[in-house]
Write a structure and sequence with these properties.
Blueprint (H helix, E strand, L loop, with lengths): L21 E2 L5 E3 L4 E5 L12 E7 L4 H13 L4 E4 L20 E4 L6 E5 L4 E5 L4 H10 L2 E2 L11 H7 L17 E14 L2 E9 L5 H4 L8 E8 L1 E2 L2 E10 L7 H7 L4 E5 L4 E10 L8 E2 L9 H17 L2 H17 L4 E5 L2 E3 L5 E4 H4 L15 E2 L11 E9 L3 H14 L14 E6 L12 E9 L11 H14 L3 E2 L12 H19 L8 H7 L33 E5 L7 E5 L5 H11 L1
Parallel strand pairs: 1-21, 4-6, 5-6
Antiparallel strand pairs: 2-3, 3-4, 7-8, 8-12, 9-13, 10-11, 10-12, 14-16, 14-20, 15-16, 15-23, 17-18, 18-19, 22-24, 22-25, 23-24, 26-27
């Protein structure tokens, strides 16, 4: 079968370069020749706080016994640890160990990537945690099986996507989160005392173990996932079409659409007044069609074109050319629709877009990432966000709110748009506008407490953290609406620091259950860090970082003008619709009376 595909991720040019040699991203851990004194980053080359993560060493275990030895050795030395995956596509600082800077250990799962067992009778497959999503779904397909749901991007590992709660979109059955299909797991966890000669032990969890509800979404704080057993189902096909409507009153039909469209999601483009529905249904394998979903944002691009795309966006930001940004977003959406968003049908042995619907096998349709296909490292073509070139760099806000709040949220955003119609064009440049996916309430302790709508915005991030963005106040106001007004739960693999404020309180009793399991599995916090402690509300840590300019990067919510960029005309202001918000807004001229009025509003 052809390689799988679908995603909404980043800015790239809507072109395909067949026959070129692709280059997967470079290593996220770089060490000296002895694998000591290393630096750790993510696939984008930078963490939210722009700091460098220094560690003492990296380990590459190739089997569970070597993993046990690695954890035991570090545990005996009281050395803090973190797991790092092959590509490390999480935006937050999840892969940087706690403890003294430069003293920690990162454990790579790059070589823990094998299929352990396939039980075709029970339709269950056991794999090692470092297996990449493409390897996983293709291995299942070889046995006539399919993973019901997955994220839209192939550049993740099973352990990584489970650790962050990554998901697709569905309210059917158990819903779109991969962790709902986990029926067993093995973890290697540290121990304060010797257990069979090791300062570590292997924990095996079955589907009836309550602790599995913590391990399914763990933020990597329980230990290292060694193996995972997934419940699969017989192979099936997907039929996908994209449909465009005006956005008038669409907020009142979101729930009914989600309930009747098996894998549906919605892209909302408020500045264009348009809604793009992905009508995505499940079909038997006997249905005709051998399509793929090669989403354009994940196709290989030449470095020169990637750099040109970023340069053009940089210029729009530098010129504060909001209208130009909107015109470009409009052209991009038209191009996406013309090319079927990357959907391709097989015609006479060639894959191209000839119209809807496009039907293909589940493993060919559920996720995309053709820019990762080749092992060649020649930079002839790349993934558009590859940090080895000055290509795109973006922020991503992704929070889930209960279905009962979605109509009110859409109404608020429409009001914000109506105040200034050019203010929300930024996310429309990134292939999804305001992207809506659907999730059922979860059994996992760190999962979603309610049937929810996941709201995802991807937008420009300057390379200079002190540089404000055009109409950044509008995105900040939406972000704060989601976090505070609608009490949204964050996607743990995305978001700026602001998105994680108050998570522990929102999780309530489920969060307490998770922490109880964490403290039993890792009594001394060897797998915890300041970042995860801040997210989980532990050890008096906080995800908020207060400093000059901190609100520009979402490290804080502005409390004073210095948290914005007053030297560039950006001051801390109340929200326009959600007045409790505090955002960095461009004010061209401020007199004394106006200044006093703004201060009184803030107070």
């Amino acid at each position: 079968m052809a390689p799988p595909t679908i995603i909404l991720l980043s800015l790239c040019l809507a072109i395909s370069l067949p026959g070129s040699q692709q280059s997967p991203p470079g290593p996220v851990v770089k060490c000296n020749s002895g694998n000591t004194t290393c630096t750790v980053t993510n696939a984008f080359g930078t963490f939210p706080d722009r700091t460098t993560c220094h560690v003492a060493a990296i380990a590459y275990p190739t089997n569970e016994h070597e993993l046990l030895l690695t954890v035991s050795d570090a545990s005996a030395k009281k050395q803090h640890m973190k797991v790092v995956t092959a590509y490390s596509h999480s935006i937050p600082k999840l892969s940087c160990p706690g403890g003294p800077s430069g003293a920690g250990l990162v454990i790579s799962t790059e070589h823990l990537n094998k299929v352990v067992n396939v039980d075709t009778a029970k339709m269950r497959m056991t794999v090692e945690a470092g297996i990449k999503l493409k390897e996983l779904i293709d291995a299942a397909a070889m046995h006539g099986l399919a993973l019901e749901h997955s994220p839209y991007w192939l550049g993740v590992t099973l352990g990584g996507l489970l650790g962050t709660g990554a998901h697709g979109s569905s309210l059917v059955g158990k819903g779109g989160a991969v962790h709902e299909y986990v029926v067993g797991m093995k973890l290697v966890v540290p121990s304060r005392i010797l257990v069979d000669g090791y300062y570590a032990r292997v924990v095996k969890l079955g589907e009836d173990d309550d602790d599995l509800l913590a391990a399914k979404v763990s933020l990597g704080v329980l230990g290292v996932i060694s193996q995972v057993t997934l419940q699969l189902e017989p192979m099936f096909k997907r039929s996908i079409s994209y449909r465009v409507t005006e956005d008038a009153d669409f907020e009142y039909s979101i729930a009914s659409y989600a309930e009747t469209t098996y894998y549906g999601d919605i892209g909302w483009y408020p500045s264009q007044g348009k809604v793009v529905y992905r009508d995505d249904f499940k079909l038997p394998v006997s249905a005709p069609g051998e399509g793929i979903n090669d989403f354009v944002a994940c196709q290989p691009q030449t470095p020169s074109l990637a750099i040109a795309a970023r340069s053009a966006e940089n210029q729009l930001e530098e010129d504060e050319h909001a209208k130009g940004r909107c015109l470009r977003a409009e052209a991009k959406l038209k191009n996406l629709l013309t090319t079927g968003m990357g959907l391709k049908s097989k015609n006479n042995g060639v894959f191209n877009f000839t119209g809807y619907p496009v039907t293909g096998y589940q493993n060919d349709m559920q996720a995309s990432g053709s820019c990762l296909n080749s092992p060649e490292d020649n930079l002839e073509t790349i993934c558009i966000w590859d940090p080895r070139i000055p290509g795109i760099l973006y922020q991503e806000t992704a929070l889930s709110i209960p279905f009962s709040n979605i109509t009110s949220f859409i109404t608020d955003v429409k009001k914000l748009h109506d105040i200034n119609p050019e203010s929300l064009c930024g996310p429309e440049l990134y292939y999804g506008g305001i992207h809506l996916r659907f999730l059922k309430s979860s059994t996992a302790y760190l999962g979603k407490a309610h049937d929810s709508v996941d709201i995802d915005l991807t937008y420009y991030r300057p390379r200079d953290p002190n540089q404000p963005r055009i109409y950044q106040d509008a995105i900040e106001e939406i972000e704060q609406m989601l976090v505070f007004k609608y009490k949204g739960l964050p996607h743990f693999g995305k978001n700026r620091n602001v998105g994680f404020i108050g998570v522990r309180n929102k999780l309530g009793a489920q969060g307490n259950k998770f922490v109880n399991v964490m403290e039993r599995y890792d009594e001394e916090g060897m797998f915890s860090s300041e970042w995860t402690d801040g997210v989980l509300g532990l050890r008096e840590k906080d995800v908020v970082i207060m400093k000059k300019g901190c609100a520009l990067e979402g490290l804080c919510i502005c409390l004073s003008d210095e948290h914005c960029a007053p030297d560039k005309g950006y001051y801390c202001q109340p929200g326009l619709v959600y007045e409790e918000a505090r955002v960095c807004r461009k004010v061209s001229r401020i007199g004394c009376e106006e200044r006093e009025e703004m201060l009184s509003l803030k107070l």
